[in-house]
Amino acid sequence: MRRRSIGWLELYGLLFIALLYGPMLLLPLFSFNDSLYIAFPFKGFTVKWYEAMVQDSALLAALRNSLSVAIPVSIVSTAFGLLTAKALTRFRLPGRRAIVGLIMVPLVIPFIILGIALLTTLRKTFDVPLSLWTVAAGHILICLPFSVMVLISRLEGFDRSLEEASLDLGESAWSTFWRITFPIVLPGVVSSLLMCFTASFDEFLIAFFLSGDGATLPVFIWSQLRFPQKLPNVLALGSCILVLSFLLIAIAEKLRRGGIPTEKHSGF
Amino acid sequence: MAADAISSGAGQEPRAQRWSIVLCRRLRAWYLGSDAARGYLLLMPTLAVLFALLVVPVATLFLTSFCTQVYFKIDCSFTLANYATIFEPSGEVGYFLGIVPYPEMETPIYAVLLVRSIWMAFLVTLSVMLLAYPMAYFLAFRVTRNKIRWLILITVPFWTSYLLRAFAWKVILGYGGVINSGLISAGIIQEPLSFLLYNPTAVIITLTHAWLAFAVLPIYVSLEKIDRSLLEAASDLGDSRIERFLRITLPLSMPGVVAASLLVFIPTVGEYVTPTLVGGSSGKMLGSVIQSLFGQANNQPLGSAVSLVMMLVVTLLVCAFLKVTGSKLKAREVQDA
Amino acid sequence: MASKDNSFISLQGVAKHFGSLRAVEDVTFDIKRGEFFSLLGPSGCGKTTLLRMLAGFEVPSSGEIYIDGQPMSAVPPNARPTNMVFQSYAIFPHLTVAQNIAYGLRKKGLSKAELADTVEQALQRIRLGGYGQRLAHQLSGGQRQRVALARALVCRPKVLLLDEPLAALDKKLREEMQIELRQLQRSVGITFVFVTHDQEEALALSDRIAVMSKGRTLQVDSAARLYEAPSCREVAGFIGSMNFFDGTVTDVDGDIATVDAGSAGALRVPVNGHATRRGAKATVAVRPEKMEIAWQPPQGVTNSVAGRVTAEAYFGDRSHYHVEVSGLPHHIAVALQNSQRSLDTTEARGRRVWLTWPVESSVLLPQAGG
Which residues from C are below 8 Å from B1, CB to CB? Predict the structure, then answer.
């Protein structure tokens, strides 16, 4: 009786994973298919779509654009996120909940509204020309909540008296941060960097509204979807992006959920 | 404070200098004593970003919604015409869920699309919860080893390009796509099935799949928090396994379910990518209209009004939902996911 | 305000409010140089907040703290002449034991060799020689406690602050560490300020103790005086156990007052400097071990109360009795030393007894508003 019910849930778990990953795995699968059409039966193995991909200059330009947005965005979001997380976990702040709520708002507003709101403000009201800068601004807004979440849980996870002990032993707030806080939150910082990088690198809608002439990779992919003859290239590119995102996020999650070196004492 | 009395030995110093020393010391004491001062100093950059990129834009959107588009210029004399337009019957044909089209009726196209978007988001949320809950339950109560690996396996797909995942479904459901070509080459069907793609069901399937990975986590966290001795106590007091689930486990995991539902429902109402890729005209949602009002149709004030009405209606629904579920849901519950 | 000769730390009207919570209210007392001083009270009484104000982690909402004559409110924790042993010990998890101990020495301008030397000496002193390269999680609770102590002491603070440093240890280790701590304090001669909720620990270790409750200090005194001459009912009840007889003063004759304690009769008690007058409300307090039990009506004894034994407990070296006195709202506790070997197992429960005690063994406590 008991044994059987365990079996059912386990079966469901496996089915769930299969359902989750199945559709995504089709992209890499068909990216090696020697046919212009994404359909069964397989016509044969080829890497020509990958060859075509690396020769596509528009694609490479989009890749460069994406990187030049995602890297600074991840750094800035993580730096701001760290300051914010420290302020929220280490000080008794009036209005703490309101601030946390405000930071999390971009997570619950449809991205399309963030996109148009930023577009109206930057382009029409303040007449800022659309560029990779405007994309980066939008991406910082959506990366901040992730960064703050990851770093808050990391900072809450370690004993506050470690920092107090350092101050007590004569170090200033600044050197305490670098000698104690930073080494202990480092896994969280790396995790946040990777998450923000991936979130920015893969983000489409806000980039769609806010990029001017220089398309980022997802915007480039979107523009290619209209042309059936370009689809195999998109498959090859998409497979690469999926694999990259998968690796980065897996590392980030591993770091984030990995053990915190502080042991909890019986005292509190 | 007794601070000034201490410097009494410094009588010959110029008065101003003494005062400034006292002032400095007081400022320093205030700064050290005030958590708020030190905390807000650290929050400055983030608050600046939020102000410039969130508060100002939403305010601008609000103001724009009372303006009028005149070709490429926006006339900002106050008007409520945009809001009126949303609820005005239009000459266009309205579909409702693709199932009940009203070709004869003149319907307010934006209002109908709003209702349809909410209904579809509701269906997506429901199916996500039904599918994610057992998985979260499995993770919390059955998985004992390699828990972190399982969690990572579940979470990672959410972070990988949403655009590509939606695209994958277009490829799967398409006329010449994976399912049709697979069934044809297996000899099951002769002609491709045309009802797979370009309808609300395709949108709901794609969005359910997109949110599935995300929703497991909050539910898992609230299940994991349940003190196991409560379950033992329930059994001890005579509950069967199913009664115990319904009376203890489910109610105690509701905060996670509520949080996950909101995090799925709210962004889904404004969905743009999926309906555009797989929805066709019957699966169209409000997001597509908003996009076109800011793009080809070039009517930003109307687009702003539509967006704001959407946000307002969603907010009201969420408040009603929270009231009904009676849970004072804290953002914190979501955070520790 | 210049510090008095023997006051090394001076708290002047110190208060700390967290929003509407008044954690510490109007605390004023001095701590002498080289003293082992304890802050004693139940959890939530404000003792830890007071200690954290001495360390600089909290700044008083009002009042001022002076250490060695210097006002401290504008001095951040890293510039104060204090070091702290945290309740959780706060051993840096990413640093080795040696790096932990050397942590506060960086600014002292020591050469590498001197630094290594100091650390090694400190390790020897806490009997952890050879443990320098270990990490915190490889140490036992007692070892961590000693590392925390060494880390603070190598900085040669003027004041060492200890926040319940023994609470996380088991009973046997805790008793060993109490003795070590007291010896250590005598040998280094540094002023110790020690926070604890364990009254026995405080009595055993301290030169003087401040008993705190609800953010206020009730009495600041030596262990013996706190026990034998408590200033108020709360102190009397918190330290050891105490029997109380409430009544009215009927007569004051020099150093002796007579209190009419209702059904307990007229009790004579030393005034001990308390301002009292005829007609005032007062309480007579007697420790359980200062009472005697008479199984027959006593003759010619001043203080005697009749009652009936309702419960007894045998502890080997002593026996405890609960005696019900008709008309009193609560029972009287009596502790008798079993100083003579006896196998007498006669049940005491239910027997009628007379409680007696010498006049000088009782304490007069004025009642609030009396």
Answer: 62, 64, 73
